[in-house]
């Protein structure tokens, strides 16, 4: 326990030192509201990570969306947050942000640190239309039966509500690439980009969502936030799929 506390203190001190070393106003993180001279390079990408909150480019895009469309957080039934990212939780969890008053539930297949552990392809603990807001970012690429997951997402999202989906995507590919025979972690890195991904999505992810009974609004950072693309160092490929149950 004492070791964990020391590690936590070390991490906090390192973060403060990094923030100081990179102080400036060339880039802006809309997730935590801090500016820096640049972001941290990671995964062979320049300006990937926020020094303060760890937001990636896709988190910064999502934070901008929530900021630009505050009506999304006019939640009455509740918000379900899959694989909750720390930087996004700061924006949508009423336990952290007391200005929000709705019911918030975090979930993951891994039970550590979430309110409701469950399998996204079989959410028996959740009723039909139980949530009017669902955030599911960078989850479906881990799920072998993503069609079952999408059907469940459509089922639990209330009529009039929304479900925000993001997946790693080859924006130049019309079709997703998947091959269930590829199970070796190193092979998966080569084929899908990460050792535990089971496919690399193409633009047909929208068709899959539609087939599951969702109406899909495609939100491109380039089209939605042209004024913030450079300052927030967003990636054009970080498409957001704002889905609503089809009538
Ligand atoms: Zn940040």
Task: Characterise the protein shown here.
The structure is a single chain. This protein has seven helices and 13 strands. The protein has helices spanning 2-21, 57-68, 86-92, 146-156, 185-192, 205-211, 221-224; strands at 27-29, 34-36, 40-42, 45-49, 79-82, 104-108, 116-117, 131-137, 157-166, 177-178, 199-200, 214-219, 240-245. It has a seven-stranded mixed beta sheet with strand order 7-6-5-8-9-13-12. A two-stranded antiparallel ribbon has the order 1-2. β3 and β4 form a beta hairpin. It is globular. The protein binds zinc ion. Zinc ion binds at residues 29, 31-32, 34, 50, 52-53, 55.
Helix-strand sequence: HEEEEHEHEEEHEEHEHEHE
Strand runs, count: 13
**Distance between the first and last residues' Cα:** 52 Å
Low-confidence stretches: none
Shape: globular
List the helices and strands and how they pair.
Layout lengths: L1 H20 L5 E3 L4 E3 L3 E3 L2 E5 L7 H12 L10 E4 L3 H7 L11 E5 L7 E2 L13 E7 L8 H11 E10 L10 E2 L6 H8 L6 E2 L4 H7 L2 E6 L1 H4 L15 E6 L2
Parallel strand pairs: 5-6, 5-8, 6-7, 8-9
Antiparallel strand pairs: 1-2, 3-4, 9-13, 10-11, 12-13
The site of zinc ion has 8 residues, from loops.
